Amino acid sequence: MTGNAPSFATLLLRIFLPFALAYFLSYIFRGVNAVIFPYLERDVGITAGDLGLLTSAFFLFFAGCQPILGVMLDRYGPRRVQTVLMVTAAIGSAMFGLAASLPELIVARVLIGLGFAGGLMAAIKAITLWYPPERWGLITGFHMMAGGIGSMAATLPIQWSLSIISWQGLFFWLAGLCLVTAAILFTVVPERGTPAASGTLREQFRITGIVLTDGFFWRIQPVLTFQQIAFIASITLWIGPWLRDVGGITSTEARADIQLYTTAIMTLGFALSGVFAGWFRRVGVSDFASANLVSVLFALVCAWLAFIPSFEPVLAWLLFGFLGAYPIQYMPLLARSFPPEYAGRVSTSCNLVVFTVIFAGQWAIGKVVDLWPRTASGYSPDGYTWSYGALFILQVAGLVWMLLWRAQPLVRKAPVAAD
Q1: What is the secondary structure of 294-353 as a DSSP string?
Q2: Mean pLDDT of 137-152
Q3: How far apart are CA 109 and CA 106, in angstroms?
Q4: CA 229 – CA 151 distance, rounded (Å)
Q5: Which of 351, 364, 404, 415 sees the fewest Cβ atoms within 10 Å?
Q6: Which residues contact 419 (CB under 8 A, 6 or more apart)?
Q7: Residue 2's pLDDT band (boundaries 50, 70, 90)?
Q8: DSSP 119
């Protein structure tokens, strides 16, 4: 940071809250299908595989545009880039409300995903511009809390809204909120130049190549990716069908209640992740080690959902939400392991890998669930056992890879220390 340090009020009102509002909306769109899926089954006639494909379509362009997004964030700044993206999300939301077939829904969902491709990345770029490095993890955790609140809004509040408007009308309202957020970002957020704004596009894309071929990046990436498949695929969709088909909860209101509790404790986990990371550092545990520890616990909860789903399922989902929020601390850890001017390209390169695999993984879960004949109430519980069992095995493989692959950060600092 250069010049006089901005006040707390400036950082809160003009930096943090506008980007947090965009991220709040991103999580509503990510998770809304977990509530509206019965309406889509009824009105469009989609299967589990279709549902997985439709929900994962959010991540298709989300992932594909990440390399370009990283360069744009570092070159043009988060304010302008995020404003354009929010307008794109508004167009996609309106198209979703008008759609009458699966292909039309998918196209609209792809546009929505493109519109929210910078929800976290633009915020991380803004955080690296306006906050000191030692606070990046803490502020990132608070930003993720805004997403958690969006996940909460995508449960019981969305279910309640469907009692007074149609699911199509809901998406028109959401489109309007996206436009309002775009206007706030454009008019409220100040500009702040960076050294990375200079140089040719070719030179800046070359830096993306450096990030994507870095050994420490690939030491962390597998476990983070596999963890995020399980976490995001479940929170954005499969928790609802799981509660109906495995948990035996047939009431949509009761399912929405449990989803609300899960996302509420997830939000708490996001808020506390940076606080816990700081506490771990004070007692001599690095960010790398603490994130790994929580990733192990999260993998065990996935095994719980796969192999002993009848044992305290609500507790399992609450732990799933809380523990799944913490590994986001891998993101600021990665950002600090590279030069500061690489920040946008580091975070978007990470997203490129994570959300490309999530697109395939969430669709694959639906395909696996579809392998068994449908039951009277929904899908066979066996499909969920195999799906969550596979997610557990993948996370274990990622943790073993991290243990065996000993690459170190490009920028060596104490908080980034890799054990």
Answers
A1: HHHHHHHHHHHHHH-TTSSHHHHHHHHHHHHHGGGGHHHHHHHTS-GGGHHHHHHHHHHH
A2: 83
A3: 5
A4: 16
A5: 404
A6: 286, 288, 289, 292
A7: very low
A8: T
Query: pLDDT, tens digit, for every residue of 42-65?
Result: 888 888 788 888 877 877 777 778
| DSSP class of 133 | G
pLDDT digits (tens, 9 = 90+) for 28-45: 998 888 888 888 888 888
Closest listed residue to residue 374, CA positions, set 52, 49, 39: 49
116 φ, ψ (degrees, to nearest 5): -105, 15
The angle, 0 to 180 degrees and rounded to 10, between the axes of the packed helices 121-130 and 17-31 is: 160
Give the C-alpha separation, 155 to 175, whole Å. 18
Backbone angles phi, psi at 252, to 5 degrees: -65, -35
Please give the single-letter amino acid code of residue 357.
V
Over residues 222-277, the pLDDT tens digits come to 999 999 999 988 987 889 899 999 999 988 888 888 988 998 998 898 888 878 88
Q: pLDDT tier at 360 (50, 70, 90 boundaries)? A: confident
CA distance 206 to 306: 42
In angstroms and rounded to an integer, the radius of gyration of the C-alpha atoms of the chain is: 20
Which domains, ranges and CATH numbers included, belong to the chain? 14-188+200-416 (1.20.1250.20)
Counting Cα atoms < 13 Å in the Cβ hemisphere of 31 gives: 30
| Residues 105, 92: Cα–Cα separation, whole Å | 9
Contact 199, 328 (CB under 8 A): no
Residue pair 1/130 in contact by the 8 Å Cβ criterion: yes
Tokens 């490129």, residue located: 352
Question: What is the distance between the alpha carbons of residues 230 and 67, in angstroms, rounded to a whole number?
Answer: 24
Q: Is pLDDT at 165 greater than 90 in this prediction?
A: yes
Are 185 and 84 spatial neighbours (Cβ–Cβ below 8 Å)?
no
Residue type, 52: G
Instruction: Enter the tokens of residue 70.
Output: 């990283």
Q: Which two tokens stand for residue 68?
A: 């370009």
